[in-house]
Amino acid sequence: MSTKEKIEEDVLLAEKTEKHNEIILYNDDVNTFDHVIDTLIYACDHTPEQAEQCSIIVHYKGQCTVKTGSFEELKPRCTMLLEAGLSAEIS
């Protein structure tokens, strides 16, 4: 087995075992589209287009995954969403 093959196997194994969590944003009747968009740009590093699309999905579908990653990475972002008055959770 060559070194290159061994490295590729290690990378593939690491990708399969890493668990990704999601921040799910929920719809509410309180926050405006502008507030949700601005908060997603700030808290989740979305582009304005991404934030607008997520806000539309949340409005019509009731929820939307707005960020994925490790729990440690998502926790402060979810906290920012909650502190801004949005309804969100990590799953």
Automatic annotation (TrEMBL):
Molecular function GO labels: peptidase activity
SUPFAM superfamilies documented for this protein: ClpS-like (SSF54736)
Keyword RNA-binding on entry: no
Source species, domain of life: Bacteria
Domain Adaptor protein ClpS core positions: 17-83
Keyword Hydrolase: yes
Gene3D superfamilies xrefs: 3.30.1390.10
Recorded coiled-coil stretches: none
Regions crossing the membrane: none
GO annotation terms (biological process): proteolysis
Keyword annotations: Hydrolase, Protease
Record protein name field: ATP-dependent Clp protease adaptor ClpS
Organism the protein comes from: Jejudonia soesokkakensis
Phylogenetic lineage: Bacteria, Pseudomonadati, Bacteroidota, Flavobacteriia, Flavobacteriales
